[in-house]
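User: Quick sanity check before I run a bigger batch. Here is a single chain. Can you write out its predicted 3D structure?
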Amino acid sequence: MIEFHLDARSGVAPYMQLVHQVRQALRLGLLAEGDRLPTVKDVAVSVAINPNTVLKAYRELEYEGLVAKKPGVGTFISGTLGDDASLSEHEPLRQELQRWLEKARSAGLDEESIEALFQSTFRNRSTHTHTHAKTEEGK
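Assistant: Done. Predicted structure follows.
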């Protein structure tokens, strides 16, 4: 079962952090159709937020067709994302990333610095790729 966490420094609304975590778990194959999400009460207690925030996240996921409520039973995964690739299919990439993380820590970077480096590199790469695609279209 998924365990939610919140990052108060992220600038992302708590309900959207929960939505993103479910989407990520689906993409990685950690959640599948039929899996039960934790109860609203359990999530609210574990991450110390208002139950209405959890309800908002679950409603958003339901609107997207990713979960379905079964009254008196719980909220269940009812949809998928992507091509149903499982985490095991991405194991070589995960291992390579793990090695990179170890190198970053050995170089003296803390978790926050590693995350900042990744985010800036990811954004720059995304911007570069998008700009390059536009340049190619204009030729």
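Residues 129-136 have pLDDT under 50 and may be disordered.

User: Great, the batch can go ahead then.
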